[in-house]
């Protein structure tokens, strides 16, 4: 068991891990690089650096293929849904976690059941429900549906968080004559802010990627979210590979930006909560 | 204790949103499945006829079993490849020195990408004429390996499984890494002192202690694979081409409900939704309780 005996094994481990890092990242690099090359260049050499990098495909995808509209729609629906879902859950989780009223446990279980249900299987009734409310091909309809799908997860995290807060906090405020809404707004919400930040981020990613709902519920191009628009776009631009790669980059970039920004935000939120 | 009216203001918005858009549709799907439909009109109680149709009427009788088999293969392949490799990476990275952070970040980066984008990206990369994968294989002298990966009924499903594993392998890796960090160092020490080989220590000490993590990874993999839609749709369209060789339950449900437009589409697709619901929810519950029992025996 000397270092010399183990050396070949070590080398194999390094090779395997760094080799796989290339496999994990190279496709994404190819996506980015090929979006900067004209299609003719991609067709003659599928792998290669751009002879003269150009953003022309991005311009085409952004305006002609209306990615600017898709991006705006995705932002509207996802942000609206995340805010709504988080807000109603922050309200509902408070009494569920802090008061022992009649029906509390049943109601808590009712909300948490949603964590395990394959909710997309309700799609056919959802379609006719939306139809009856005039919410087919509507960003509002999609926002409400997305918001509802985030409720179980938010309730789960926020209830645990409210429960961990000491009971003296609201008792003191109540003795001072503060009403429930005041206690909620001025004491509870500031204290659960770190949890609000993380449930916001965790809802954001799957909603940003949601494809089946908009595939079924949206009809017109000017209402499409990014995933729905992307599937349309791949049907129309089949031979314009440069544009296809640019579209994939544009669909991916917002989430990468969000993660770079939000990771700092979340860490800041957590540490700020600790220093108090 | 606040008054009921105050409680209602706190509780009602979430209750209404969740009940109307999540619970009501799931309950209604069950109701729909017991009726015969003509377009959007119910024409009478059908009992279990819609369920019987799924197993007895062409083409559902063939497509249902085929899709179920593909989902089962998808799950088995993912457990075997993605989760085993994820565990291997977690073990290798456990005591890895410089570069550990970078490697973990690199392995997990693909799961920030939309599954739909991953599917479209790989369908371009694997294109038989202009795709970089085959041009790389040819450059390496492996011309006979430059196959139409997604165009051949024998390779299409395995390729979909591999692409899915490429996207998600960081996830079991992170969960197993966290679980490994939670195993006290003395256990490994004790195994070594008793003269156990590295493999014996892994098999007899590490692996049993990973049971909770393996349980979580298995159940989440099951739920993820049986709900697969975007990735397969992007790589193989709504029919699971070529020739249905990548068709899965999610695609089949979408087609029966919204694409094929049969007269009784609502009745049959609702029956299919209920079957999938019972299967996915039931298996996840059974698996969860199985792993909890194993865990308890461990302690």
TrEMBL record, chain A:
<feature type="transmembrane region" description="Helical">
    <location>
        <begin position="106"/>
        <end position="128"/>
    </location>
</feature>
<feature type="transmembrane region" description="Helical">
    <location>
        <begin position="183"/>
        <end position="205"/>
    </location>
</feature>
<feature type="transmembrane region" description="Helical">
    <location>
        <begin position="241"/>
        <end position="262"/>
    </location>
</feature>
<dbReference type="InterPro" id="IPR000515">
    <property type="entry name" value="MetI-like"/>
</dbReference>
<protein>
    <submittedName>
        <fullName>Sugar ABC transporter permease</fullName>
    </submittedName>
</protein>
<keyword id="KW-1003">Cell membrane</keyword>
<dbReference type="Pfam" id="PF00528">
    <property type="entry name" value="BPD_transp_1"/>
</dbReference>
<feature type="transmembrane region" description="Helical">
    <location>
        <begin position="140"/>
        <end position="162"/>
    </location>
</feature>
<feature type="transmembrane region" description="Helical">
    <location>
        <begin position="70"/>
        <end position="94"/>
    </location>
</feature>
<keyword id="KW-1133">Transmembrane helix</keyword>
<comment type="similarity">
    <text>Belongs to the binding-protein-dependent transport system permease family.</text>
</comment>
<keyword id="KW-0472">Membrane</keyword>
<dbReference type="InterPro" id="IPR035906">
    <property type="entry name" value="MetI-like_sf"/>
</dbReference>
<keyword id="KW-0812">Transmembrane</keyword>
<keyword id="KW-0813">Transport</keyword>
<feature type="transmembrane region" description="Helical">
    <location>
        <begin position="12"/>
        <end position="33"/>
    </location>
</feature>
<feature type="domain" description="ABC transmembrane type-1">
    <location>
        <begin position="71"/>
        <end position="262"/>
    </location>
</feature>
């Amino acid at each position: 068991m000397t270092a010399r005996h183990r050396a070949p094994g070590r080398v194999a481990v390094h090779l395997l891990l760094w080799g796989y890092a290339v496999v994990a990242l190279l496709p994404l690099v190819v996506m980015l690089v090929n979006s900067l090359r004209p299609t003719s260049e991609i067709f003659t050499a599928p792998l290669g650096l751009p002879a003269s990098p150009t953003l022309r495909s991005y311009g085409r995808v952004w305006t002609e293929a209306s990615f600017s509209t898709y991006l705006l729609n995705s932002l509207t629906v996802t942000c609206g849904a995340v805010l709504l879902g988080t807000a109603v859950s922050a309200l509902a989780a408070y009494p569920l976690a802090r008061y022992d009223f009649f029906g509390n446990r049943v109601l808590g279980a009712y909300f948490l059941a949603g964590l395990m249900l394959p909710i997309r299987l309700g799609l056919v009734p959802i379609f006719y429900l939306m139809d009856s409310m005039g919410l087919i091909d509507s960003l509002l309809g999609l926002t409400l549906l997305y918001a509802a799908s985030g409720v179980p997860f938010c309730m789960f995290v926020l209830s645990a968080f409210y429960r961990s807060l000491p009971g003296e906090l609201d008792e003191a405020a109540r003795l001072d004559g503060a009403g429930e809404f005041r206690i909620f707004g001025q004491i509870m919400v500031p204290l659960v802010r770190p949890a609000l930040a993380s449930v916001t981020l965790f809802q954001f990613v799957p909603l940003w990627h949601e494809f089946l709902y908009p595939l079924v519920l949206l009809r017109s191009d000017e209402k499409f979210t990014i995933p729905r628009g992307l599937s349309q776009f791949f049907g129309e631009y089949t031979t314009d590979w440069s544009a296809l790669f640019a579209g994939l980059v544009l669909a991916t970039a917002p989430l990468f930006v969000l993660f770079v920004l939000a990771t700092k935000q979340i860490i800041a939120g957590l540490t700020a909560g600790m220093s108090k | 204790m606040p008054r009921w009216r105050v409680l209602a203001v706190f509780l009602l918005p979430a209750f209404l949103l969740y009940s109307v858009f999540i619970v009501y549709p799931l309950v209604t799907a069950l109701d729909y499945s017991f009726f015969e439909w003509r377009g959007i009109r119910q024409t009478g109680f059908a009992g279990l006829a819609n369920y019987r149709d799924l197993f007895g009427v062409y083409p559902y009788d063939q497509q249902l079993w085929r899709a179920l088999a593909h989902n089962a293969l998808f799950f088995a392949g993912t457990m075997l490849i993605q989760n085993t490799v994820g565990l291997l990476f977690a073990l290798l990275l456990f005591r890895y020195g410089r570069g550990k952070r970078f490697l973990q970040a690199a392995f997990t980066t693909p799961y920030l990408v939309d599954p739909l984008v991953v599917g479209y990206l790989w369908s371009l990369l694997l294109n038989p004429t202009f795709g970089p994968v085959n041009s790389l294989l040819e450059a390496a002298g492996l011309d006979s390996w430059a196959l139409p990966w997604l165009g051949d009924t024998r390779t299409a499903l395995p390729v979909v499984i591999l692409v899915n594993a490429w996207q998600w392998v960081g996830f079991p890796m992170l969960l197993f890494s966290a679980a490994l960090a939670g195993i006290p160092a003395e256990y490994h020490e004790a195994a070594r002192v008793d003269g156990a080989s590295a493999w014996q220590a892994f098999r007899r000490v590490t692996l049993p202690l990973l049971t909770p993590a393996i349980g979580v990874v298995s159940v989440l993999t099951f739920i993820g694979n049986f709900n697969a839609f975007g990735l397969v749709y992007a790589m193989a369209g709504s029919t699971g081409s070529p020739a249905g060789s990548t068709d899965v339950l999610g695609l089949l449900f979408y087609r029966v409900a919204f694409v094929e437009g049969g007269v009784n589409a609502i009745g049959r697709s609702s029956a299919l939704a209920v079957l999938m619901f019972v299967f996915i929810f039931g298996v996840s519950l059974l698996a969860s309780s199985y792993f909890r029992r194993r865990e308890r025996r461990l302690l």
